[in-house]
Design brief:
The chain is about 25% helix and about 20% strand. With about 300 residues, it is α+β, with helices and mostly antiparallel strands. Helix 1 runs parallel beside helix 6 and helix 5 crosses helix 6. It is globular, with a radius of gyration of 20 Å.
């Protein structure tokens, strides 16, 4: 699942290309009776309402909240996009082929949009300048819905999310306050809890704890203040590094131009099972263990 750096990379990319454009059309082939999607465009009845509300609206701004992308429109409407497991947004020019083909929309120009990971297009927004915003989602778990801009952050989609870890006021005291909400939890699991801290998932929690030298099974209550400062520093440095490298494309993620990120080339722990630890003078190896249903990768020596 795309985490904070991937979603931030997408958000920044969208700001550069869709602000001030007007939405002229929207298409989807998603159709489900799943009640969990009743308020999203995968529900055909909701899609009709969604389409009516967004047509001829102008994009005013794009922002991120945790793993959510918020596209703010004129008339005080906001499109919320959650990429979930395999979703990513792509910007370019597309053409409609045939509803009988596996892939109905295809890019009209050569380039990275033709990457096989980008072929699962299930939503298309058409803009006033004849360009398109495509939502590619192999597993169809992604969510797109419409909110009132003024109350968007008070809705069920956003109102139970912890603070943003890259904000300037997110310091060691704030981190301690957040983690202490689950003092009996294991640190990796707590870091991934979106109600505790926004945006951290499986990949970056492994990398953060490797950098901080903290074992993923350590209970929050047993972590000392000096170690909390190491975790804070690791959070900020690791997430910033993820953004600098354009996100992690170990799996499906691609940026809005269809290109993979490069953070996966710089993993220190995640999916390096059995390999030598890269920390200077450390003689450990990277181990893998399932913790509360999620895989954790960590050094057998320096993470204590």
């Amino acid at each position: 699942m795309p985490e904070l750096p991937e979603v931030e990379t997408t958000t920044r990319g969208l700001r550069n290309v869709i602000v001030d454009l007007t939405i002229k059309d929207v298409w989807t082939d998603l159709s489900t009776k799943d009640k969990r999607q009743s308020g999203a465009i995968a529900n055909p009845a909701y899609f009709k309402i969604f389409k009516k509300e967004i047509l001829n609206k102008k994009v005013l701004s794009v922002e991120r909240r945790a793993k959510n992308i918020l596209i703010n429109l004129s008339d005080r409407k906001t499109i919320l996009v959650h990429l979930k497991m395999t979703g990513h947004l792509l910007y370019g020019k597309y053409k409609f082929t045939s509803p009988k083909k596996d892939y109905v929309w295809i890019p009209t120009e050569p380039g990275p949009l033709h990457d096989p990971y980008n072929r699962f297009v299930h939503v298309i927004f058409t803009f006033s300048n004849k360009t398109h915003l495509a939502f590619s989602d192999a597993r169809k778990f992604g969510k797109i819905t419409l909110l009132d801009t003024i109350t968007a952050h008070d809705t069920k989609h956003l109102n139970n999310i912890g603070p943003e870890p890259l904000e300037k006021d997110f310091d060691s005291e704030k981190l301690k306050e957040c983690l202490n909400k689950k003092v009996n939890g294991k640190i990796k699991t707590v870091l991934m809890d979106q109600s505790i801290i926004a945006g951290i998932g499986n990949i970056y929690s492994d990398e953060i704890l490797w950098r901080a030298g903290i074992h993923p099974e350590r209970k929050v209550r047993n972590i000392k203040d000096i170690e909390l400062k190491l975790i804070l520093e690791a959070i900020k440095e690791t997430l910033a590094k993820g953004i600098d490298f354009g996100g992690d494309s170990m799996s499906d993620y691609r940026n809005i131009h269809g290109l993979p990120g490069k953070f996966q080339l710089h993993h220190e722990a995640y999916r390096r099972t059995g390999e030598k630890c890269r920390k200077s003078k450390c003689k450990g190896t990277i181990k893998r263990k399932v913790i509360n249903g999620r895989s954790a990768h960590f050094c057998s020596v320096h993470q204590k």
